[in-house]
Write a structure and sequence with these properties.
The protein has 104 residues and is mainly α. The chain has a domain of 53 residues. It has five helices and no strands. Helix 2 packs antiparallel against helix 5 and helix 3 crosses helix 4.
């Protein structure tokens, strides 16, 4: 019984440590790009990703081109850029490097 309580308290600490506002903002960023696709495009994107099972080699050349086109329309690079900026702002900006003194 003591182990179960210890696990629960550990889980509680982990859940409390999650930056929920940051996760919510990330969801908004991804969701905005997702709804920009038409319902037909979203369905086809899901179909291609499932068919690939995480490996592009499982798709034909035509399907790979179609997947690439859909991902371009989804603006995956833009999502990554926005999420990176969000993570940096959460962390407090750029980290300063320690200055090294050169000995002579």
């Amino acid at each position: 019984m003591a182990k179960a309580k210890a696990r629960e308290s550990t889980l509680e600490r982990r859940v409390k440590a999650i930056p929920w506002s940051t996760l919510l903002q990330g969801g908004v960023i991804v969701g905005a790009r997702w709804v920009a696709l038409s319902a037909k495009e979203r369905a086809r994107l899901i179909e291609l990703v499932r068919a690939s099972r995480g490996r592009l080699s499982n798709l034909s050349a035509r399907e790979r081109r179609e997947l690439r086109k859909l991902l371009h329309r989804l603006d995956v690079r833009g999502i990554g850029r926005d999420l990176t900026a969000l993570a940096r702002s959460r962390r407090g900006g750029r980290r300063r490097r320690a200055r090294r003194r050169h000995r002579r």
